[in-house]
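Workshop exercise sheet. Pairs work together: one partner reads the sequence aloud, the other fills in the structure field after running the prediction. Swap roles for the next sheet.
Pair: D.N. / O.F.
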Amino acid sequence: MEEYLASATAASGPASTSTANSASSGGGGSKRSVWSITREQINYYTTQFFCMQSDPNGVIPGALAKEFFEKSRLPINELRKIWQLSDVSQVGLINDLQHLVLTTLILDVYRFNSCT
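Structure field:
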């Protein structure tokens, strides 16, 4: 997971996980959205997802995801909150889109914690 975090952080650039442009307030220019991720990140996270999943329905069970994301060393209570945000159907399984959300949120929390 540490290599995963390092690779994912490198793919996102030095300060942000965003690449999409949105109208900035006032100046007519554009700024990056904090809610978007790069094409490189999407490709990397999707590859990680498909390496973990063997279900023909394209999902990862919660136990496998838990084992993988615990390697981030984030506290279990933070991982639980992030899981709850990502597992919107509350079935204990995540698909590739939910995996993107989970990974992005975990990396953002990881970066925030390392800055404080």
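Discussion prompt: The mean pLDDT is 75. What would you look at next?
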